Amino acid sequence: MNNTFIFLRHGKTKLDKALPIEEWDLTDEGKIAVENLAKTDKFDDVDVIISSDEKKAYLTVKPIADKLNKKIIKIKELGEIKRPNAESITKEQYEEMKVKIFKDFDFSDYEWETANHALNRFKEGIDNINKKYENKKILIGSHGTVMTLYFAYLQNKLDDIFARWKDLGFCDYGVIKDNRVVKDIV
User: Fold this and answer.
1) Within a domain: 90
2) Does the predicted model carry a pTM greater than 0.85?
């Protein structure tokens, strides 16, 4: 990688069982957190701003894009692990799924994407971005599971992934340069 990537997890999400999980908004607390993040100078030198195509990731980088007068490029490969109808399962079932997918990277239930597939899709998305740009600082708004998988993969820490995911907070970010983690997400 000749680019510097900053991966930013979306702000706190407002659960809305009436909508598909991909369309969920940020909570008021989440909106305040991303606005406050935009007021800092942490991301003032980014050249490119990219988001997954999920609403919560887009809304997380939008205040930064507005401040810097930059457009946001949406890339679906950077989306969260595909979890159809996740809004219809209980919180306990959702947590149980996370345990299972992190324990067995080929496990799937409820038609969810496997962790291996999600990681490979995410890596391919990053590789494509890296080929498109040269020596740029790129901010990517994304999601906890895929970011945890990617950072653990790069650091050879896939055996401790569930604990890493549990430690990841909303609006946490990490930095990767030359295919190395220079700032971990947790």
Assistant:
1) no
2) yes
